[in-house]
Amino acid sequence: MHKITYRSPANIALVKYWGKKKPQLPMNPSISMSLKNSYTETTIEPVGKTTTGISLNFVFEGKENKAFAQRIESFLSSVLPYFPFLVDYHLNISSSNSFPHSSGIASSASAMSALAMCLVRLEQQLDEPNGVFETPEQKASFIARLGSGSAARSIYGGYTLWGETPSYAKSFDEYAVDINASVHPVFQEYKDAILLVSQGVKKVSSTVGHSLMNNHPFAERRFRQAQDNITKLFSILEHGNQKAFVDIVEEEALSLHAMMMTSSPSFILMAPNTLHVIEKIREFRENTGIPACFTLDAGANVHFLYPGEHTATVEQFIQSELSPYCQDGKYILDEIGEGPEFLLNA
Ligand code: DP6
To answer: Does ligand 1 have an atom closer than 6 angstroms to the CB of 13?
Structure first.
C-alpha cells in the first residue's frame, strides 16, 4: 500500500463561526481566507491487518503522541460510517505543523483538513465508493467539519464559505464551498501578518467557546449580524470594495470577542498588547490611507490583513511599530494560499 501525504493550510475567518449545534453544524455561515505558509503536513500509511476495529499509531513532529492518537482514534470511529474500509488496515499516521505548536495559532483547521484529504485519497486508491458526495473535496470538507468546524473551510484555497446563506445558492451547513469565482482580483493578492502577542496555549477550548453561545443573551442578534455581514461581504468581495471590507472584518473580530466578554462565564482573550496593536493598525490606516485591517481568532494574537501591493510599506511598519508588542518580537508573514496540496504517494 502507498503512503499518502497532504499539506493543508490554516485559514483565518473574516466572518466568524461562533456557536454550533449537533452534529457539528454552525449557527451562522462564515467566510475565510486560506493561508499559505501556516499549514499541517500529514502522512497516512495503511498496513493490512487481521484484527478487528480501528488501529493506529500517531507520530507528531517526530515523536509518538498517545494523547493525540486517542483523539484521532475517536474521530476515525465517528467517521467510520463514511469510510467502512478503515477497520481493514492499521494506520501509521504522522503529522507536523509549519508553525510552532506554542505559537497560539489554532492547528485544528489545518490538521483536520489534512487528515480528511488523506482519508478521501485513500478511499479513491482503494476504489471504494464515496457515497452521496459530488466531488472528493465535498466529502473531504464534510469529514474535516466533523473533526473541527473551521477545518471544513481549509479544503479550498482563497476564499471559502461554510454554512447556508440566502446570499449564495450553493451553500451548505454540512460542508464548505469555494467562492473564488465571485471574488474581485484586488482581494486575490491579500497578505496576513500574524502578530504573536501571546504564544501560550489557548485559554478557552473551542468546545467550551462555542457552548458559551448557548443561552447567551445576545446570541440571536449575533447570528443575525453574521448573516447580514455575509451578505455584505459577498457584495464587497465581488466589487473589490476595500474600505467596506475593513469595516466588516474589524466588526466581526470585535463582535466575536464581545460575545466572549459578555458570556457566562466570561473570557477576556485579548491581552493589553492586542489593544496596542489594534490602535497602531488603525493609526497606520488613517495616516497612510492603506486599507489594512485587523482580525482576531479566539486568542490574543492579531491577524493583520493588507493588500499585497503595499507589502514593502507594511512590512517596515510591522518591524518598527508592531513587533515591539509581540512576544519575543515574533510574527509570521503569511498570505492567501491555494489550498491543500497532494505531496506524496510513495
Ligand atoms: C474563533 O473550528 O476551532 O476561530 O468546531 O469546535 O473545532 P470546533 O471549533 P473551531 O472554531 C473556530 C472559531 C473561530 C472562528 C472561525 O474560525 O470561524
So the answer is: yes
Please give the sequence-ordered ranges of beta strands (E in DSSP) within the chain, or none if there are none: 4-15, 20-21, 25-26, 30-48, 55-60, 63-64, 89-97, 159-162, 176-178, 190-195, 293-296, 302-307, 331-335, 341-344
Query: Ligand 1: distance of its center to the CA of 142 in Å?
Result: 15
Between CA 152 and CA 38 the distance in angstroms is 16
Over the stretch 8-28, which tens digit does the pLDDT of each residue have? Answer: 999 999 999 999 999 999 999
Q: Write the burial class of residue 221 (CB in 10 Å: 0-12 exposed, 13-18 middle, 19+ buried).
A: exposed
> Which distant-in-sequence residues (6+ apart) come within 8 Å of 307 by Cβ?
186, 189, 190, 191, 242, 290, 291, 292
Closest CA to 297 of 132, 116, 143, 106: 106
pLDDT digits (tens, 9 = 90+) for 38-62: 999 999 999 998 888 999 999 999 9
Which residues have a Cβ under 8 Å from the Cβ of 328 and sit 6 or more positions away?
196, 199
Point out the ligand 1 atom lying closest to the alpha carbon of residue 106: 3
The CA angle 297-301-302, to the nearest 5 degrees, is: 80
Question: How many CB atoms within 10 Å of residue 6?
Answer: 25
Helices (H) and strands (E) in the chain, counts: 8, 14
Identity of residue 38:
S
Nearest CA to ligand 1 atom 8: 148
**Closest CA to ligand 1's atom 14:** 297
Ligand 1 atom closest to Cα of 24?
A: 5
323 Cα: distance to centroid of ligand 1 (angstroms): 26
Residues 6+ away with beta carbon under 8 Å from 131: 82, 139
